[in-house]
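Hi all, long-time lurker, first post. I run a small reading group and we've been trying to get comfortable going from sequence to structure in the token notation. Rather than ask abstract questions, I figured I'd post a concrete chain and ask someone more experienced to write out its structure so we can walk through it together at our next meeting. Sequence below, copied exactly:
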Amino acid sequence: MTPADRLLLWLLRVDAAILLTAVVPIFFPTEWMATLHEQLGLGLFPRQPLMEYLTRSLAASYALHGAMVLFLTFDLPRYRPLVAPLFRLHLLFAGILFGIDWFAPMPRWWIVMETGTIAGFAVVVLWVNHRAQRSIVP
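-- Answer (accepted) --
Happy to help. Here is the structure in token form:
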């Protein structure tokens, strides 16, 4: 395994670990979610069934995505062809989230942190993946 391969593996596992932390808020009591919502400066948390559903299912979706990214790392040579398309989708996802956040309207700091982190990390992974693929000897 080349240094670029090891770096790619490390980056994917860090991404997976961060995404898998989303499992925790799935089980937060509603009061915790409301407190966090208010502490982030987002106003009062609407305590309605749809909000409960959306917050918990979004966290579950992030965790599921993290599990899939982790799965890719168990046999990176086999699943390497999926890395570039997946992280190009991350770039698209960041753009979609930018639009959602902008029209929501979320605070500017939220928009920058969320979309900047997702897009920036995707660019790094794509660059390292490209470097790792160039070092593969046919």
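A couple of things your group might point at:
The helical segments are 3-20, 23-26, 30-39, 49-73, 76-103, 108-134.
The chain has a mean pLDDT of 95.
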